[in-house]
């Protein structure tokens, strides 16, 4: 297999933007894919996957290539060469790199792979934290699973179409999908494809959403006609699913701290034909007070470390800091105590995160249940989903019910 010059240069430029200019990998990948209109799907696949792989394996590749940050272009070339050798490509002969012969690269790879944090290419602090919280054995399999490329999963927008119709439309475009047991709205792409370019997407027939993320709205047990509050709606992946399950009947209030995120949600809701959503920027405590004990269902999809979704966001390995996780745990306690008050007696609350750390998940829920407001809730059930067990993203969700009578 030969490496094409402009694909490789595009990859190096992208890595420079991610590592040296602090840009987000997904944005850089999206921009890079537009660079050359002549590229076919395999060229685009090469660019996207290579960028993600080198971001994912940054620490390991840098150690093998014996380069340190900040990476100048020569260093990026050396890391690229490591990637090429380990993936069975020849190092491009038009960019000979001295001092990194194949044998040396493979030898260093074998040697360094004996240390888990290097083998799995994560910061030492993250390795220690994962092992402390999940135990050595579970963490080792979990981080290995989260280093695998993510599958592309669609959520069929049942406000507009059905799974079978969408499947047939995609099949006509040579996009082959498979269904998932017990996940009526999910379709898994058999091969990567840019589904955002399809008319079906532009018409709002589906959203791209991980299979386990799709479990959350169903877990909340929403029904048409209810009043539902999604307190940390963000750009609305789960809000839109809830809207579909509510069949546009009832009231769905989407809240977030950031107007920019709710704006994105509005655009998506319009495309999806979701009409029962109201938007509230949380700019004062008044908003919460007004909703006191008013909602049948409340979703707290809390801000978290994201240590369940590294497959999808490999650059988070390098952006996350332990202090951020300490701080986010405090935010999680606060949002639980504050937003749970919105649930009416007899109503239900789901607390969810895309983290696999017990300290952000079941420990938060256990602590909440000892607070004054928490004592007004019964714990119904929870689901701790590891990427290594499910094949999709790591998630946590707990279902609580507010007691009818205050004790
Ligand atoms: C896990 S993300 C939400 C993802 C979104 N629910 C989805 O399914 O696409 C958490 C969200 O919480 C928001 N957030 C952070 N602190 C918050 C707070 N105190 N109150 C409400 N939202 C908050 C963030 O802006 C972010 O959009």
TrEMBL record:
PROSITE patterns: SAM_MT_RSMB_NOP (PS51686). GO terms for biological process: RNA methylation. S-adenosyl-L-methionine binds at residues 256, 283, 301. One of its GO terms (molecular function) is RNA methyltransferase activity. Coiled coil: none annotated. Keywords: Methyltransferase, RNA-binding, S-adenosyl-L-methionine, Transferase. The keyword Transcription regulation does not apply. InterPro entries: MeTrfase_RsmB-F_NOP2_cat, MeTrfase_RsmB-F_NOP2_dom, RCMT, RsmB-like_ferredoxin, SAM-dependent_MTases_sf. Residues 142-403 form the SAM-dependent MTase RsmB/NOP-type domain. The active site is at residue 354. Belongs to the class I-like SAM-binding methyltransferase superfamily. RsmB/NOP family. This is 16S rRNA (Cytosine967-C5)-methyltransferase. It comes from Flavobacterium micromati.
